[in-house]
Every structure is written in structure tokens, then in C-alpha cells.
Amino acid sequence: MPHNTHRLVDQLLLEQGEYLPLEFLLHEGRLSYADYEAWRGGELDFLDEALFGDPGHIQQQLSDAEDYLRRRGWQAEIIRYEPWRHTSHRGNDVQAAHQPGSGPLCFSANSAFDRSFHRRYRKPRDQPQLDLFTDAPAANLVNGITQALSGRNPPEARRQLERLYDSAPDHVRIGELERLVEAAEGLQTAVVDAAADMRMLQQIVTPLADNLLGKDSRNLLIPLWRRLSCALQDRPYLAAQPELHLSYTASQAMDWDSARQAAEQEPHWRADPVLLLRHAFACDQLRRQTAALQSWFELCWRFPEQSHAIESSANHELRHQWLAYLELDPELPAQCFPAWMLLSKPGLTNTLPEPASDRSACPGSYHTLYDLQHRRLHCLTEHDTGNTMALRARLKQQDPVLYQHYLAALAP
Questions:
Q1: What is the pLDDT of residue 384?
Q2: β-pairing, 119-122 with 18-19?
Q3: Spatial contact of 82 and 105, defined as CB atoms under 8 Å apart
Q4: Are residues 9 and 114 in the same domain?
Q5: Are residues 8 and 113 in the same domain?
Q6: Of 71, 112, 197, 356, which one has the greatest count of Cβ atoms within 10 A?
Q7: Distances (CA, A) of 58 to 1, 51, 75, 131, 360
Q8: Residue at 73 is within a domain
Q9: What is the mean pLDDT of residues 195-213?
Q10: What is the predicted pLDDT for the residue at 386?
């Protein structure tokens, strides 16, 4: 388990240049962004109460991450999370229970767990370089604007932007900051043209927010995606415009259950690769492993050319199985990955439903292997050797290469 923790820490360091326990929990699927928003908005006293999984195990993960970073010489600093003045939680505007100035938020009533969450690790610099502009008034105003945007405080962002216009009207960032402040101020307005707003959000606002706000950009962007989701609530899915659909905007807003439901509500959604992928990713994030696997399997059967998307799954074990599958000798096509998963994980026959006979996308070899593994798992082979041998003969005829791997899996 520490090895998996170290790998995720390395990924965060590569992508963000620092380590934050908050980012670890979000990437690991231990925390939903909606619950994080609720905590910042004063709806939760302790954020650890909303974590997915065993708290003791999660605390050990954060401890392992800290030990790993300390051994590498990274330096810790204390961080604080202040309450947001306003928060848009699960699509509803509410006044935060805690107001600015009421003190930093607590992650956990467990003091050790709380301290671990409030430590950031950064790589030490051999010779810290002096930034001549750090203390300049204009730079301070820019920092104030970005902090206000990250803290969801548009009035403060606008106030500091007006001061920047007064003191440094030719500042190189002033136009970009104006765009972001306008976007934050527009959250309370209705969407008139969803396609135009989508283009603005994708092509202008998101790149600017990522550049100026870094990982805190989502504090601005997610409410903007929610605004679009409300506008697209009743819009049917069109393959020619796949992003103008709730399954997409809800995913961008990290509202995984809404994304899942939006995909499932479309007729014949399993026959569309875009909706299948969105459904699989959403179910992964929701830890609905059976539903996620079914969508990944459908993707392999119907759209094998897109099966490489499994490498981006939030399910670590599934990714590991996929990479092992790619190394098989003799090789198998992507359509056989679901069947091979039954070989690697026979217990799946206890959780996955029996394949429907009328599902044309499901290969016959999967049906046969499912029956063989189910019989093997429940020790039925010894009592009905004839049927077992007939199933093996059928599998050999349906897919000789898969049959070789089946025999190899039976070997002691």
C-alpha cells in the first residue's frame, strides 16, 4: 500500500510542483469536491466525516505520504483553510455558516489527523531567488484579486481590480483578470446561449484560470460548469454536439452522480462511446465498481479502439489489470479484456450479472468463460464434468487463444 501512496504523491508533485493532502484525497477518490465545498461553506464541522473509506486507513496513507516526502528532503509548511464568504453547494446558493474572521476550519477532531491535513510540502530551494516585483503594489493587488477569486469573493476581486486600474492601468495581466472577475460576477445571471457560454468557458476562462489560479482554478470554474449544467438540464444528447449535455458539464463540475444519471437517461446510451466513457468514469469516481466495469466492458466490446481510456480510470486495480493484459503472450484483442478479467478475478462472477443472451455486443466467448468461472468458483465442475467439458470445448472453438490462457489459469 505505501508503494501506491508514493506513486500518487509522485504524480501530484509532477503535475503541481507541491504536495497537498487535499489534492491527494480528491485524486484518490476519498473526498468529493461537493463535500469539500460544503466544509468551506460552513455546512460541515469536520471534513474527515465526509471521507470515503476507513478513516484509520486514510490517516495511514497521509502519514506514509509525509514520511516519503520528508525522506526526500521536501519541506513542510502549515496551511490554513478559511471559510468561504459564500458557497454554491450542490447547485444551491447558501450563506456560509462561518464568516471570514471566525477562524480557520478544522479538518478533524483527531488532532494528529488534523495536523497532517494542514501541511503542505514543497521542494526546498538551494538559493531562494529574490523577486523584485513581489512587494510592488501592483503585484500585491494581483495577488489579492486571485486570492479573492479562489475564495469565491467576487465583490472583493472587483474592488481590488478597480484599484489595479487606478494604480497600474497598463498592467500586463489586467485584461485577463477582468475576464475572470466578469466570469465570477456572471454566476448569478441566466444562460442565454449555452453554446456560446461553453466556448467562452472552454477557450478563454478555463485557460486563464488555470494559468492565474493554478489548482485553485476549480473554485471558480466548478460553479461556472454548474451554471451551464442547469441550462442543459433538459437538453437531449446529440452525437454532433456531445459536450452540450449534462453528462459532460456535470463531469466537469465533479458532480459524478448527475453525470451518471444524465448518461443513463439517454436512450441507447450504451451504443454511444462518449456516453459510455462518461458513465464509466463517473461510476469509478462514485466507487460503483460493478456498474463501472459493465461500462468498461461494453466499451471494449463495442468500441475496442477506445479501450485505451481504461488507463485513465480512477480504479487503480483495473488500470493494473489492463497494463498486465497488454503484456500477455500470446496477445489478445481489446474485445477479450472482459473475459480475461474473469480469468484474473473469478470472484467477479459473484458481482457481475450473468451476461444477457440478447446482448449482441457481448462475445460468445465471454458467455462461455463466465459460465466456466462461475462453476469453478462454486465447485460445480466436479459434480457435472460433462457440462464443464462441453463448455471448455465451446470456448476452444470460439477463441483458441483465450482458451490457452484459460488452461494456463487452471494450472497449479
A1: 67
A2: antiparallel
A3: yes
A4: yes
A5: yes
A6: 197
A7: 11, 9, 22, 38, 42
A8: yes
A9: 97
A10: 77
